[in-house]
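User: For my dataset I need records formatted as: sequence, then structure tokens, nothing else. Please produce one.
Assistant:
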Amino acid sequence: MNIPQEVPAATRHRLLLVSRDDELDSLLAGRRIAAHTGDLRLARATGPGGRPDEDPGGPPPDVALVCDDRDAAVRLLALGVPVVHLRSGHEPDTAPADEALAGALRRVHLPGWLPGPRPTGRDVRTTGTLAPARLSRGRTRAGTLLLLSLWGVPEAEAAAFVAGPMVALAREAARRTGHCDIVHDTAGPLVHAALSNGAEVAAGTTGSVDTHRADEVDVDALHARAEVFLASPTLAALTLAQARRAPLALLPALGAAQRDLAERTRTAVSLPEAADPADPELWTPPQDPAAGPWRELAAAPDDLRGAQRVARTLRQLSFAPL
């Protein structure tokens, strides 16, 4: 019997992953797709322009996944690299065609259940849901995950939310669930300042509050272990809860994109809002997925294989560029 030999890493085709690590949607979309590209050798960009983190003077990658970074996509196309350009986050309006990206395969992260216009144009397709690689949650769950995105949010609006409602929610989450993990994208200085100024967050409870940059932790794994999930209205958070049929309470929408996404979401599924930290129902979500809000989508189940399909396209391009 012939046993297939593993392809040595050095001879695998190289995939360059470019994402905005300070934008939650971009970061998690790239990670979820990369989880299905095990037969490609993965390199990550280290800064603007999509430059790989290994052998910067070497040959270009065989294929690139560029999440949202237009300049990186244009540069890679000029080098002759096959590019899949993904728009990972929600945009209130359909973006006009970009001639500079005409050589790329363009994908738009858009769950099938989310109402609104679909993108049009040559080589532009929707992905469906970019679900996490593991759909299960931990059997024993504890604590709260507060997933905060301030990408594109006006500075004054972001500061007011972090200093007021976020601190109150974190304090109550620690008191009621024992622990609160705050994961943020661009909010680091604001979050740390708010928590240092509000020492009562930890001192007034028997629980604890920890903060993390999204690019330094496994957000999907933290969600699998958490009992309560509070999140900014983002596609990354919505698809995470939807794929796992898990409870989700939306934080107040900040900025135009979040407000538009929250409004569209409400027309399809009834998610509670994390507006009142004293609301006991916020901290005791239904444990039966059949009783959760995602049951409203049962009549039109969404395809959760978006990340696998994009990964398959990348593998095909690495062997047979267009």
